[in-house]
Specification:
By secondary structure, the protein is mainly alpha-helical. It is built from 15 helices and two strands. The chain has a two-stranded antiparallel sheet.
Amino acid sequence: MPSRRRTPEEPPPPPPPDGILWDIAGDVRALLALPAALTMQVAHPAVGAGVDTYSAFRTDPWGRGERSLRSLQTWVYGGESAAEEGRRLRELHQHIRGTDAHGRDYHALTPAYYAWVHATGFPVYHHAQKYLGRPFTEAQERQLYAEWLQVGRILGIHDRDMPQTIEEFWPYYAKVLADELEETEVVRDLVATDRPVPPPDRGPYLLRVTLRALWPLLLPPLARFRRFITIGLMPPDARAAIGLPWTDAQERRLCRLGRVIRTVAPRLPERLRYLPLARRARAHRRITGSAELVLNRRTD
């Protein structure tokens, strides 16, 4: 059913609480797919140049990741705060401009670049679901895409700059892969296993001290796992367009890991399965939904 047409003064609403994004965006399994989406974003030379120059992902990777995750969660679960967060992000990107590795000028809010950053979420969710959960049906794919379009509106992207249907999305996506993406310097950093990464500086003091002491031993396997999951959960056509290697043996390992995750994750209690913002929003929705149901029964 098409949504009610909103007036220009009305902020775009977030995705619906009974939708697909409410189920998957705050699930801890989504954390595994985020590096693939980020890597696809920065494989665009303009986006990669902006991140290379302006982002703190090298010096403060944990803080940068936490802020990005909190922002993404707000788009889906933030209610009235979702549109406010979208406006904040656009203001933040107003002054991000420069020259990419090919000597071309870029601005972060150029519609084609900003829309690509948003667009990567859909194919990554679509692909990762085959490993981390049950593959989407055709109807679920269409619903997910409609909800992801709504996220784009929250981010301030005009409908004219986003493919409006799945049938329009896949040719657009294939053209960006063929014409734009490459293995940028930021991509190389994100999939490298030999780059220095500081230990986490958040959490309880004892945990931080312990991680700092063990970090020389923990970093190498963590870096290898990050590379494995980043490349593995990236759609194969994007992986090929960027030039990232992937073997049959790695695919079998990813399938085995996926079977374990699909078995364990649905059995976790909600307090462990969902991230805090998502968990609170879902709990609030259950409470208000129950209250509305009682009220409706009394007025029938």
